[in-house]
Amino acid sequence: MSAGLRARDGALVNHWYVVCLSNELRSRPIRRVIYERPYVLFRNEAGKAGCLPDRCLHRAAQLSKGTCEGGRLVCPYHGWNYDVSGNVVAIPSEGPCDLPPGVRVRPNLFLESRPLCEQDGCIWIWLGDGSPQPLGPPWRFPHASDPEWASYMMITDFPNEVTHLVENFMDVPHTVFVHRGWFRRKAMKRVPIDVEINQGSVLVTYHQPNDSIGFVGRILNPKKQPMVHTDCFIFPNLTRVDYSFGPGYEYIINSQCTPVATRQTRVYTHIAFRLGPMTSIAKPFMRWYTRQVIEQDVDIMRNQGESFARDASENFSFTEADEMHIAIHKLRRMGAAGDAGLWNYVRKSEREFWI
């Protein structure tokens, strides 16, 4: 891990990542760092978002510390103006400039803008070379605009990296230790699981309909119906956790992990749920509850991250109960190497663990 995160992740850079929430980007520019590179985001007068390197061409000032005027990004040092495509469209020290929209002051004065896509309340950035493939993020947050569901987004900074985070978000055995009393209690119950790897995803199906998920189960499952629980990793950086408790009672947790730097990741967690007649009033409690649980994951990921800071090797010990971890590691390694075979890799296995 002596090399930077961008170098170590290789071809994993060539994908779509959430750079900010739509409602974070308003009248002022904002700065975001992804894969160790700083970017500035802003909107033009029509509301279109732009994303440029956070460094003025003139004297390298941080553009994110500037202003937005007339839909242009204005450098705080000498006032150079940029449009959302990265063109320098005005240089105040050279006098008034009345060029048509999108025309550069000089042909060679422009910053390379990054392709963006805005959907489901998020702004996604394409970090790869050339045109985006696919043209937009293939992932949609489920039920983001469904009036029968309640949903909200949470942002959390984790002191660890994507592979370890997606494992954590899908890992059931850790819940009886990290989330003791909040999520599960140690009961020494046998849990059979199916692990299916197909088209860059790892789907885990749990065969334990009478599982309990702590005191919050009284809200999620007031009728005490059998629970259907699946976890899914979606290459390269998404997890989806589904709980279903019969008609009208469902809970879905999506986590999209944006790499920032070595042992730094920003996670955008989309929570969607419907809880029968409680759907319209449960959001404040669910938001509070999920924040408590997520902060416990932050603590254990910091624990692991500090260990990596002292010893960068990742020589893990695996058992059969870690089949999901092994699969995620394999797909992420194949992706970093640019191995397109990950999309054709198919495997199904039956395992079990105890909680």
Quick tags:
18% helix; 355 residues; alpha+beta; 32% strand; 4-stranded antiparallel β-sheet; 8-stranded antiparallel β-sheet
Describe the protein in words.
The chain is an alpha+beta fold and 355 residues long. It is 18% helix and 32% strand. The protein is built from 6 helices and 18 strands. It has helices at 5-9, 162-170, 175-178, 217-220, 283-310, 323-336; strands spanning 16-21, 30-34, 37-43, 49-53, 67-69, 72-74, 81-82, 88-90, 116-119, 122-126, 150-158, 190-198, 201-206, 228-234, 238-244, 249-261, 264-275, 347-354. It has an 8-stranded antiparallel beta sheet, covered by helices on one side. A 4-stranded antiparallel beta sheet has the order 5-6-7-8, with no helix packed on it. Strands 1-10-9 form a 3-stranded antiparallel beta sheet, with no helix packed on it. A hairpin with a 4-residue loop joins strand 15 (238-244) and strand 16. Helix 2 packs antiparallel against helix 6. The longest helix is centred in the C-terminal third of the chain and has 28 residues, at 283-310. The chain is globular. The model has no long low-confidence stretch (mean pLDDT 93).
Q: Radius of gyration, rounded? A: 23 Å
Order of adjacent strands in the largest pleated sheet: 11-17-16-15-14-13-12-18
SSE sequence, one letter per element: HEEEEEEEEEEEHHEEHEEEEHHE
Shape, per Cα inertia axes: globular
Unreliable segments (pLDDT under 50, ≥5 consecutive)? none
User: Portion of residues in helices?
Assistant: 10-25%
pLDDT averaged over residues: 93
Task: State which percent range the strand residues make up.
Answer: 25-35%
Structural class: alpha+beta
How many DSSP-defined strands? 18
**Helix tally?**
6
Profile the largest sheet.
8 strands, antiparallel
Quaternary organisation:
single chain
Through-space gap between termini: 33 Å
